[in-house]
Design brief:
Helix content of chain B: over 70%
CATH class of chain A: Mainly Alpha
Helix content of chain A: over 70%
Oligomer: heterodimer
Mean pLDDT of chain A: 82
CATH class of chain B: Mainly Alpha
Largest sheet of chain A: none
Number of helices of chain B: 12
Distance between the termini of chain A: 47 Å
Shape of chain A: globular
CATH architecture of chain A: Orthogonal Bundle
Low-confidence stretches of chain A: 260-284
Low-confidence stretches of chain B: 266-271
CATH superfamily of chain A: MetI-like
CATH architecture of chain B: Orthogonal Bundle
Number of helices of chain A: 12
Distance between the termini of chain B: 29 Å
Mean pLDDT of chain B: 85
CATH topology of chain A: MetI-like fold
CATH superfamily of chain B: MetI-like
Number of strands of chain A: 0
Structural class of chain B: mainly alpha
Order of helices and strands of chain A: HHHHHHHHHHHH
Shape of chain B: globular
Strand content of chain B: under 5%
CATH topology of chain B: MetI-like fold
Radius of gyration of chain B: 23 Å
Order of helices and strands of chain B: HHHHHHHHHHHH
Amino acid sequence: MVKKWIERSYSGLIFVFLYAPILVLIIFSFNESRTRGNWGGFTLHWYADLFRDRQILSAFYYTLSIGVISAVVSTIVGTFAAVGIYNMRYLGQKTILNLNYLPVLNPDIVTGVALMTLFIFFNFRLGFLTLLLAHITFCIPYVILAVLPKLRQLDKNLAEAAMDLGAKPFYAFRKVVLPEITPGIITGALIAFTLSIDDFVISFFTTGSGVTNISITVFSMARRGVNPMINALSTIMFTTVLLLLLWINYRTNKEKEEDEDEKELQMYNVLGTAGDTLSDDDRV
Amino acid sequence: MKSRMAYPYIVWLSMFIVLPLLLILYYGLTAVDGSFTLDNFQRFIDPIYLRVLWRSVELALLSTAICLVLGYPMAMIIAKTEIKRRNLMVLLFILPMWMNFLLRTYAWMTLLGRNGVINNILGWAGLPELNLLYNASAVVLGMVYNFLPFMVLPIYTVLSKMDQSYIEAAKDLGANNRKVFWKVIFPLSLPGVISGVTMVFMPAVSTFVIPRLLGGGQLMLIGNLVEQQFSYVGDWNFGSAISIVMMLFILISMALMTRFDKEQQGGVGLW
């Protein structure tokens, strides 16, 4: 009994530690007073300011458009790549997969400065295009890692059976393989989108000419100290991510009913975003 | 034949993943005029920079240790909870990981600042104001806060898959709880501990955002050094050299970790 009580209060404390800062942030986004510590009454005017701020609005626009475009492009390239890698011979497969892990394992800052060096070396003007290229680059590996396990689960004979029955290879791919791996593709696209709208470090180094995303704007504002407008922005972003995550979770749970246990591990693997190690199952 | 579908990505990979790293290598090994040199690496051996490296490693190790001590019991508690509540608890751990990293760090500025919430509460209680922000402890706190889920989740995954009959067998053979933990549970959970340690240490040692926001810029870590070389000083050669050191450091420790992990399981190392 005592043990149970200790366990409960311990996990309670950990969750308070995890969520108190976020909660305080959200509460103070409705605070009238500019000096953060005091409660000066309820207001929405930081939200109103937020939607009038030109810099934040443009950052919002860039974050979303980069997120959508890079999710679409990286999902297409990544899905094709996963199918290709799956059909490669052992050595080629191993080489590509190890290279594919580089941006996943490398510290973001190294990926960031390396891409920046590349762009400047080839006289690309840092801006929207370079930012987009960088985002696609770090998203593709995660798409591949989401799609590949689905391909491994696939029965190899299915596509062959379709082709025996007269389907052309591409038709067999579209009608037989694609529907089977679609859940992996959607998960990959969602991960790519979330990674893209969340990224700071790589964006920081690969953008320029006034193109900034939300994270960069927050960084430059926060460097000058606490600002209630950031709190309002955080609240909006937190709610958005919460909804996205609930959706992903709902999807994964639905799949889990089909293939129980294995899925769970995979979910954490792809969910751990920053410099994570992936389980050995995924390595070839 | 279908392996051709990977060709576009192979081109992409060579252009945007391999080539940039080769460029970094090139800059790291050359002087400003383009001649080959090892000066950039030699410069890094200077005590000023070694101290920066040491401080980064020290703070990252400290945060990793705190995460392990806080996270292991938490993982055990989650693994023991019944399935429905367990999923909720796991979700609650994943959720902050998905919130913007900068905002999570920024949240602590509101709490710790001079006019922050904690100082206000102290003020009401009639206690003196504390200097909580802009020092090394704030940076460690920020790291622990940001990376704790990375420690808890892998350990939890291993613990929840552990064969309970080992524990029962140990108990049947007369081991007490402490002995069961140190002789059975902990050794079996090592793969999770190792990936947790890796997942906390790696981002902690390379971050430049946390020391910048919570350390107030006085506390220079290796990530800040790289950022400074590229954004302010414009010394790409030296910046590249530091990046190479950082990358090798991380890839090598990762390889060692995987090897150790593999040996534990009696398999063959990948690297």
